[in-house]
Amino acid sequence: MPKTLATTTTVDRLLHHAHQVTTDGRSQRLAEALAGKGVVPLT
Question: Residues in the chain with pLDDT < 50?
Answer without folding.
Answer: none
